[in-house]
Amino acid sequence: MADAFAPPLAVLIVEDNPVQLMEAAAALRDAGYEVAEASTVEAAQAHLATRPELVAMVADVDLAGEPLSGFTLAKAVAARWPEVAILIVSGVEWPGEEQMPMGARFLRKPFAHHGLADALSAVLAARGIGS
Fold it and tell me: 60: which strand partners?
C-alpha cells in the first residue's frame, strides 16, 4: 500500500454469504484496507452513493435472491461510479468477456487469505490507485 501516513484505502465487499463476507473482510483488513460490507445490491449502491472515499468494490457473482447478479451490479457501478476499481469473484460462474465491465478483473473462489488482497492490489495498481 501507499505511504505510512496516508489513510487506508477504503473498499466495499458485496457478498451475501455471511461467513465468506466475514473472511473476505478480515483478509482485506489484515492487508491494511478500510472495509465496508454489503450483502445486497441495494446496500452496495447505498454505500457507494454516500461514501465517496470508496476506491474499489469486490463483488460476488452469485447474490442469492437478487434480481441483479454481481456482473450486473459491476456494470452499473462502472457506469455510475467509473472511478471505482472492480474485482468480481465467483466459485460458480466464470465470466464471459461481455459480462465484465471494462477494467474489471475476475478472481475465482476459493482463494487463499492473501489471494484476495493480492488480486485487489493488482486491480488498484492497474488504475494507478495506492501505488
Answer: 89
Helix, strand, coil percent content, the chain, rounded in steps of 5: 40, 20, 40
Asked whether the beta carbons of 55 and 129 are under 8 A apart, the reply is: yes
The torsion angle over the Cα atoms of residues 94, 99, 100 and 101, rounded to 10 degrees, is -170
Pairwise CA distance, residues 1 & 36, whole Å? 18
User: Does an H or E element contain 10, and which?
Assistant: strand 10-14
pLDDT digits (tens, 9 = 90+) for 38-51: 999 899 999 999 99
**Can you give the pTM of this predicted structure?**
0.90
- d(Cα 96, Cα 25) in Å, to the nearest integer? 27
Q: What is the pLDDT of residues 65-105, one digit of tens each?
A: 666 688 889 999 999 999 999 999 988 877 777 888 888 99
Residues 43 and 74: their CA atoms lie apart, in Å, by: 14
Tell me which residue of 50, 51, 17 sits closest to 34, measured CA to CA: 51
